[in-house]
Amino acid sequence: MDLSKVTLEIFSKLEQKWLSHCENTNKTRVLSIDGGGTGIVAGASLIHLEEQIRLKTGDPQARIADFFDIIAGTGIGALLAAMLAADDGTGRPLFTAAEAVGFIRTRKSDLFKAKFPGILRRRGKFSGNSMDKALKEAFKREDGELLTLKETCKPLLVPCFDLKSSAPFVFSRADASESPSFNFELWKVCRATLATPGLFKPFSLTSIDGKTSCTAVDGGLVMNNPTSAAVTHVLHNKRDFPSVNGVEDLLVLSLGNGPSNASRGRKLPNTNHCSTSSVVEIVLDGVAETVDQMLGNAFCWNRTDYVRIQANGLISEGVVGQRKEVEEVLKERGVESLPFGGKRLLTESNGERIGSFVQRLVVSGRSTSLPPSPCKFTAVSPLLNR
User: Fold this and answer.
1) Which residues share a beta bridge with 31?
2) How far apart are CA 329 and CA 326, in angstroms?
3) Would the pLDDT of 343 be above 80?
4) I want to staple 100 with a disulfide (CB 3.0 to 4.6 A). Which of 95, 187, 346, 356 is the partner?
């Protein structure tokens, strides 16, 4: 045995491990979950993400929130994000990834309960009361108290569009921690970003102290992919993230939710005109893809720091059952935005890409430099004192 070669190999591996540790220790970790789509892609990705974290750390109790410094979500993605970040009262997440996805799956008929049978209408509306009840159940503590935006294990960002100010409004734990005027019940935050026009009425909500009000519709109209909002929040929030000076200090995982049903194989009719519904679907998918394109350019120097998981074909025909859906999503080959437009098909599958990301994610451990109750300096809000 050549001891010199063995020694060199050992030291090379130790050096790689040390360099990897140095590279990741100070990075702020961002998780972003899209709205819209079917929810299958994000749900499958989250379940696999938590399974991989537990596998690579050897900790069966590890949760996604342990390894991210901020979680953002829109629409159905916001509901998933809030369930993963909600505090159970002991400082631990209220739901595992599998429990959160399972809740949405089993309560889907309550969350999206048809208000009209649709016989006389092409598109029926959903019952807001039914969704309210399901969301309250999800975010209620054992003592019966409803959780607020402030009561989350990690910083949370959820966008909606406020009809009163005709501008986006982003709910954040940072603002909620600073003032009760920006603290809202968590179920209402999710309800606001899920208020899709045409399916639900605009949802009116007020802060805990009653000083801030908002008439909300679906956050997906303006931020279906909230990754850019999360990145911007971290870059400009020096109180909570003092070590972040640029994107080189970030580690970002962005989960798509699959293209909308109407966007799959979208074709123009013989008249070469798009219907109104098709235009809406193009806008929602286009906004999400534009954000991905911009972030891809921002991280082009090191694409391992920004990973986007999105479907390129989604579920094959005939696939039935949760486990089968998860397997189908994870075995699809990943796609990546190119610097000057377009996409390329990667050799790695979505599951392999998540596994590679987790390898970098867990190197720094679950420790975080964030304060127990993150907050940030805020500007005067046009919504205040309404």
Assistant:
1) 71, 253
2) 5
3) yes
4) 95
- pTM across the whole model: 0.83
pLDDT for the residue numbered 319: 41
Three-state DSSP class for residue 177 = helix
Q: What is the rounded CA–CA span in Å between residue 155 and residue 173?
A: 5
Determine phi and psi for 27, rounding to 5 degrees.
-80, 135
209 tagged catalytic: no
For residue 115, what are its two tokens?
Answer: 């208000």
Cβ burial, residue 262 (10 Å; 0-12/13-18/19+): middle
DSSP 3-state of 65 = helix
- The residues, any chain, with a CB within 8 Å of residue 237's CB and separated by 6 or more, are 174, 376
Which helix (DSSP H) or strand (DSSP E) does residue 167 occupy?
strand 167-172
Residue 21 lies in a domain: no
Percent of the chain that is helix, strand, coil (3-state, to 5): 45, 20, 40
Inside any domain, residue 254: yes
pLDDT band of 280, cuts 50, 70, 90: low
Sequence-ordered list of residues with C-beta below 8 angstroms from that of 344, at least 6 positions apart, any chain: 335, 336, 338
Residue 377 predicted with pLDDT over 60:
no
Instruction: Give a yes or no: residue 374 inside a domain.
Output: no
Number of folded domains that form the chain: 1
Determine the structural domain holding residue 88 and report its residue range.
31-114+123-156+224-260+276-316+346-364
